[in-house]
Amino acid sequence: xxxxxxxxGVFGFSALTLIACxxxxxxxxxxxxxxxxxxxxxxxxxxxxxxxxxxxSGTTYILTGDLIIPEGEEIVAEECVTIIAQGDGGxxxxxITVHGSLIxxxxxxxxxxxxxxxxxxxxANIFAGLWGGIQCSEDADLVYLKWTRMEYLGGEGGPGTPRxxxxxxxxxxxxxxxxxxxxxxxxxxSKDDVYRPVGGKINLVRNTFEFxxxxxxxxxxxxxxxxxxxxxxxxxxxxxxxxxxxNEGDGTVQTNIMVYNNTIINGGWRRPGxxxxxxxxxxxxxxxxxxxxxxxxxxxxxxxxxxxDVPNISVDNNLYYATHxxxxxxxxxxxAETSTLSTLGSNNIYGQINENNxxxxxxxxxxxxxxxxxxxxxxxxxxNQNSGANLRLQAGSPAVGAGTTSFTxxxxxxxxxxxxxxxxxxQPSMDLGAYPMNGSGNNHY
Length: 445
Description:
- This protein has 4 helices and 34 strands.
- The chain has helices at residues 6-11, 325-328, 337-341, 370-373; strands at 2-4, 19-20, 27-30, 38-40, 46-55, 60-69, 74-77, 82-85, 96-98, 101-105, 112-115, 134-136, 142-146, 148-153, 171-173, 179-183, 186-190, 195-197, 200-205, 208-212, 220-221, 226-231, 234-238, 243-244, 256-260, 263-265, 281-282, 287-291, 294-296, 303-304, 313-316, 319-321, 360-362, 390-393.
- The chain is mainly β.
- The strands form 5 sheets. It has a 25-stranded parallel β-sheet that branches. The chain has a 3-stranded antiparallel β-sheet with strand order 1-3-2.
């Protein structure tokens, strides 16, 4: 059995066998002897090292160093829990390393917060990568986050950690057996990808993403061996893609992702050039589908590269809106025109400038100039976050009733996410986007 080299610094191994892997350059070592695992109790205030147990409702905990959840153990955060990633005063922020399970049970009435000290929650620190988020080993069973807000993610990994010397992702998984359930969560400020699964079973529904990726990075950057569904999410201002299904890597399970009923706004503009997607991007052997999404003022349209599993990808019943001609010109990405067109159904809604306004209840889709989209770090703040917007549809919107329910979400065999931890399998809606007229879907704002 293998562990991250993280264990070397924390637990002290007796025999080492280093293996350098391709792609994400994962380093593993042979199993050694673990140090004592601390059980969290009513006297616990600081989190660091190997721990297990329950984080009690209404309590604030300080992440003073890397928190390790050993294999076979779990940490459960009840509602109203706050974790402040303060670290030990050094230049590298701490992380939560999961070899077992991490469960966060926030509620709509009292969400959980994983953040940094209040004085560091500034606009200047949005892409500072102040702490390392959640890093999973190949042995991790489950990360289950409900109504949890994670902020100011990324930053370089410290010596002896999985991403040593490299920028960390907000959430990272490495096994097709690891299960990830993210529901009604809020992700704000990530230096690179918010979540990069190198394999895994995923269910991402009703989440909101803001300020994801500084000059690169995606919201969800899927690699080989990942299957599941992405539905009813809201995405503001990704650096590159909101969601990128790819089968790149050495996984034995083909990536299969269904992306439906999402609302994606202002995506792709912090990534220079035209060599990437901007909202939903299928590539490198991935299969799946994209249905019922609303895509507004993104740099490019849904993109299917010719190296994707093109015959097994379907794209239909999506609505595009653009304020500027340059966006209209890339509704069908010019570098993947043939392969993208071959996946399109007949019910996608395209038009010219200012046609097919989705008629959000409170959001001005025409507020930004083209120069502001291209401004990089100088983009207006509200281009990349919700600033009082309400993305629910008004009566008469072309998105109302324009969807399809004729496809089936990807079937996932959940092993750990069962019982009261079972994911919400949400069926598609006939209304496009994350906010159907019947009030189902995303619950933020």
